[in-house]
What we know:
Chain A is mainly alpha-helical. Chain A has helices at 24-46, 94-101, 104-113, 144-164, 176-192, 196-204, 213-226, 229-251; strands spanning 51-52, 55-56, 167-168, 171-172. In chain A, a hairpin with a 2-residue loop joins strand 1 and strand 2 (55-56). Chain A is globular. At the A-B interface, helix 3 and helix 6 of A face helix 2, helix 5, helix 8 and helix 9 of B. The structure holds iron/sulfur cluster (SF4) (2 copies) and FE2/S2 (inorganic) cluster (2 copies). One iron/sulfur cluster is lined by residues 144-150, 169-170, 173, 210-213, 215, 217 of chain B.
Amino acid sequence: MHEVDVQVTKFKFGQTSRIDLWWAQPLTVLLVLSAFVAYATWAAFQGVHYRFGPYLSPLYSPELWGNPLTAWIGGKPGWYPSWLVFSPAFFILPFPGGFRVTCYYYRGAYYKSFWADPPSCTVGEPRKTYWGERKLPLILQNIHRYFLYIALFFIADLAYDAWNGFWFNGHFGMGVGSIVLLVDVVLLGGYTFGCHSLRHRVGGVLDRLSGSPVRKKAHDCVSCLNARHMTWAWCSLCWVAFTDFYVRACSMGLIRDWRIF
Amino acid sequence: MASATFRIWRGNKNGGEFKDYATEVAPGMVVLDAVHEIQATQAHDLAVRWNCKAGKCGSCSAEINGMPKLMCMTRLSTLPLNQPIKVEPMRSFPLIRDLATDVSWNYSVKTQIKPFRPRKPDTPDGTWRMAQADVDRVQEFRKCIECFLCQDVCHVLRNHHLHSQFIGPRFFVYAGALEMHPLDDENRLRELRDSQGIGYCNITKCCTKVCPEGIHITDNAIIPLKER
Ligand code: SF4
Ligand code: SF4
Ligand code: FES
Ligand code: FES
């Protein structure tokens, strides 16, 4: 390709002519993401207090191995390493975690906040070499399109949990926790159904969408959610942590779940 | 009348410096008006490129207080006039003089993108049928005015100078408009990946942020092309 024969400006790390608070947004992303990772890790290591009445924490759902009375498969599996604390969350978190880490929105955000590549638009970078997502390891981010299928399964699973959250000992009812779980699946649905890979799958891949009205409709819906993907991403992330906190706090007896009817 | 100071880059490819110019400002003025005023009264040899004064020719691109913008569309009322307003040339392209840069690299990049190749005509009279729904998507890309602000802000060009391996957001928009066109049956995906460097884009969206035409460069052009 045609080379630029005159050397263009070189920037030092942090060098910019911007006078606004360019560091505020990347710093906020850094703090909120770090806080979430810290909380989710702590909560996953607890291994208890993830259920309260009909409520199940989203960090532990589906409960594959765990409490033999409630888990899908059974109690702690025999092959589980003895040196590792047992927690049902360990079987779950890698999947939604992988989906989020490889999400196009989060990638762009954490490359800025955690890797300063760039720290913010028109701000100088710390490193000279750059591979982008062209080579290993970051080319692996393309695995996102496969994580999507697992994420869609999780939405179905969490919808089932939300439904269960309305059933108290066989009676239909509603507690604050039922609403917390319902909002959780709605926010996660808004995030997952606005995924760029889903947008491509359902219709973006076609050049002539008008020939497939169903796919056109699906593409329009996903595009609509996709336009606010960042908002869905943050709201759902914070709400997942809050939902776990709510269930945990009820189970530990720190707060009372208020029954509406 | 109020007055404001403009800190304008003066120099050529061998070097230069910022110089301060104080000038009077009036309501409704844009940065390009102030630069013209300075050129007319204080710095007759100040090089600045412009044409339409309406945000449509893409000539007056510069960096105003560090952000790539069209000078003719940046109202002074949006800037903090109590401190000097920094106006400098785009930093990702070679400087000619003062605020004028040599953007010809972009034109040579464009020639490397395979042109439109329509499928066989739909009817014996040699015409095609297209649905509006199918061209909606590419119409967004056709709004591009080739101001190259997105190329200027992109860190792959700006900080890493990968001009020889990366065509930049403007040309992902261009390639996207062709790739997603309902009549086109050319395939540009291999070059996009291999020699045109779409993998270098780390979707940090600075290009989208600066586009004066509001094109969703990252979400609607680059990511769909990465997915293809
Ligand atoms: S999103 Fe990609 S093309 Fe746009 S500025 Fe960032 S790295 Fe460059
Ligand atoms: S895509 Fe937008 S920023 Fe880039 S050249 Fe076109 S109009 Fe300018
Ligand atoms: S792009 Fe964000 S979830 Fe797929
Ligand atoms: S002078 Fe034409 S875009 Fe500014």
